[in-house]
Amino acid sequence: MNPGPFDLAATLTCGQCFRWEEGEDGSFSGVAGGRELTLSPLAPEKAAGADPFWRRYFDLDLDYGALRQELAALSPVLAEAAAFAPGIRILNQEPWEALCSFILSQNNNIPRIKGIVARLCACFGQPLPGGGRSFPGPEALAGLSPEDLAPLRCGFRARYVIDAAQKVCGGLNLEELRPLPLAEAREALMTITGVGVKVADCTLLYGLHRLDAFPMDVWMKRAMAVLFPGKQPEDFGPAAGVAQQYIFHYSRCHPELF
């Protein structure tokens, strides 16, 4: 097994997931797919790669070195961003969890998003052997009212989450979005109340591993304007989503550029 660089901290703190916590020793503990895991920062690819579920979750079989070479050839600035954090990987998250989490992420910062997601799981998830809670499926939320979600303190987002759960339970098959043209898959997600382009693209990239999706939040709009004036997401090709992560992380770590 030779997965190439795998930066555990950069991957888990770059805004693509919300159920991992860092320990004082640099380890990370989290829950995904109803499974609990703690990973040491020392050779995490070995521990994660030994289990097929976590190997896929951390995308250890994709050759990111080849992708970085392709992206670096597009722009010296992108080459620098890719070289800054070569170990970032796009997680293979459960599509419903990604959709629900990024609905809750709207107009929020990461610590608050993590708090809301934690309360959602504590209130409606199933208990796990290690003491954690699973992420509640859409069927657990579809019959609720916004008042039922009041303990989450997620405000206006409550009715969006419920509408998403109802639509998924009612026939919106997230897995069927994987092979669709990007615009068509995005439009299907945007039939959900409160889901705009950014949440749709986050769901596609982080939940369905659509590497052609390129989420644009405030940071990314600023980064694109300053670092890549005149460029559009599609200019980065089929691995645009990987480029997005490199650009996002590089920009956050270099605020002096803005």
Features:
258 residues, mainly alpha, 3-stranded antiparallel sheet, 5% strand
Descriptive report:
The chain is mainly alpha-helical. 47% of the residues lie in helices and 5% in strands. The chain has a three-stranded antiparallel β-sheet with strand order 1-2-3. α5 packs across α13 (240-253), α6 (95-104) runs antiparallel to α11 (197-207) and α10 (182-189) crosses α11. The longest helix has 15 residues, at 110-124.
N-to-C span: 40 Å
Q: How would the global form be characterised?
A: globular
Mean pLDDT: 95
Which percent range describes the beta-strand content? 5-15%
The H/E string reads HEEEHHHHHHHHHHHH
Structural class: mainly alpha
Major pleated sheet: 3 strands, antiparallel
Count of helical segments?
13
Which radius of gyration do the C-alpha atoms yield? 18 Å
Lateral arrangement of strands in the main beta sheet: 1-2-3
Residue share in helix: 40-55%
DSSP summary, beta strand count: 3
Strand-helix topology:
Blueprint: H1 8-12, E1 20-22, E2 28-32, E3 35-39, H2 44-49, H3 52-57, H4 64-72, H5 76-84, H6 95-104, H7 110-124, H8 138-141, H9 157-169, H10 182-189, H11 197-207, H12 218-227, H13 240-253
Antiparallel strand pairs: 1-2, 2-3
What would you say about this model in short?
It contains 13 helices and three strands.
